[in-house]
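Supplementary material to the annual report.
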Amino acid sequence: VAISRVVPGHLPFAAQRLVVVTGKGGVGKTAVTAALAHVALDAGRRVLAVEIGRARLGPLLGASEPLGTDPVRITSALSAAAIEPEDALGDFVQSVLRLRIFARRLLESTSFQVLAAAAPGLAEFLVLHKINGWLDARRLGRPLYDVVLVDAPASGHSLPLLDAPRTLGALARIGPVAETLGALDARLHDPAQTLVVVVTTPEELAVRETIELHAQLAGLGLPMAPPIVNAMPRRRFSVADEQRLAAPDVAGVDHPLLDAARFQIERRANARAQLEILRSALGGGLVRLPFLYDGPEAAGGIAELAAVLADAADAA
Amino acid sequence: MTLADLIAERRIIVCVGSGGVGKTTTAAAIGVAAARQGRRTVVLTVDPALRLKDALGIATLDGKPRRVPLGRGHHLDAMLLDVKRTFDELVRGLATTPEQATRVLENRLYQNLSSTLAGTAEYMAIESVQRLVEEGKHELVVVDTPPARHAVDFLDAPRRLLALLDSRAFAILKDPTSILPAAGSRLAHMLLTGVLRGLERFTGMTLVREIGDFVGAIEALMGALRTRVAQTQAILRSDATSLVLVTAPEPRLVTETSALVTALAEVELRLAGVIVNRALSQAALGPDAVPAPLPVALDPALERRLRRTFEDLQRLARRERETLAPLLTLAGAPILAEVPLLTAAPAALDELIALGRWLVPAACAEPARGRGHG
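Predicted assembly:
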């Protein structure tokens, strides 16, 4: 497994301007994105957090209304937006053609599907184009956002997203699109500007997919952060506790308290085994986040994750 | 109706649900359980994951049914959905001449569309099922479906594919000037044509012309495709087929799964029931579960830690209950099985068999096994 591209000890709040968070569905990408936004805010950076086609990030960041394509200000330093690729196509064509009526009728959603299928990477390119615009936005001579954090689609879809400049570049070789693609590609591959973070849980399926995804992304030459292992079962029992619970007078006893403890101990042991597998495949430097029994949406959930991430960044 | 009844009586069981809920594993476990009862069963999966191959203990999982020996003379067939190949075969089957088929198959747009157009994978899954049923080698086809981002993509795919190919949108793409009123001015025609040329120059692609070629080629197949789709639609809505929703008590799934359930109802596809994966036992961890005093003497500090661990799980169980409740109301279908949060996902055949015992307990003499909190 290629790990040479892992930027050692770099967590996504040091210098990068674009941080892309990806991973298998359900591992907590959105919660990690929200927590990273908090870390960057605490470091005094102005943050734009972006999600693609879902509706979970806004509430975790404290947005009172659903996010849309235009960034909304949540606090003075935190803004958030959500991109729908289909809207992005409309915006793009309108900005290019300046003929709204035709553009709108041409781009009914079914037409969009056909167009998107006809040009692999088009939908992804439009998303990146939008993000690129935010990175370039300036006010009073300095960037409007210091960092753009992207809650990217799940593994299978994030690869086409990050590879879009090249897939589409193969089709559009000349013209303004080709130039934009070249600039995007350079930005994505520059470790000083971009960092890709893979989030996983310490479960077999997620770990397997993470190792695969990590290799594929590194294979594209993208700057990779060490993976973040989310939802790590907490350590509740000492070695002596575990020995006591395994003693003959306790081991065979069927009782809800003991069942719960055995369940917790076994889950943690499994999680640690998966952590080892991940470590041996990708090298050390994993960041572990605790399992939140009340979920990240409960009061203090994101703050707790952010505190752990900030410590990890300090240690690095 | 229980899952055991469905296994015994249906010809097709379709597992639907969001990505990452354990649909593939559940479909495989249902298939294993059915085959062990002597039903000639094939599992059609859309997930090319290595893990499933490992769990089934087979070297190859591809577009042809592969035999999985289960002991005691039983076996299961497993095959992987091959979208491109199924679509190609469909085109060849529908074309009246080999030239007609070639014209479609060699179109660059077809080659992209056949694997990326939303709904194609879904439709081809159903097309494969119909083919398996027609071949008649199996009594039961268990289908694992692609995850639904747009929920409707699922089983309404045949109708949607047809609607897309028939649609005005497609006509527009074939001849973009058709969006103008019939009596539109020559000036408007010229203007739009100019805009489209501009778009092509701008993107460096010849999209519009290629789309026109493709539509022209595929139009010849439309009549035959319409007949085929009508057959597929009928099978899905017949008594031979049951849809099972696979879900898990996780907040991220609520919106997507609710949309799926609503969309299924809109296209008149009814759910036979719900399988809840990765659920903590509400019996053991519900609000009324107050553990009796421990029957063994333990250090008070350890007992406090035991209580805390139990309460953690109780909180989690409450959150799961609150997450699932609205979804179950919306689905209006019974829970067919609750599979506990297993400490590890099934990675071998005996673990799939064990999982099957949670799904169809009555069918197995041995009780469910494996440390789940249930």
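Residues 106 and 238 of chain A are 65 Å apart (CA to CA).
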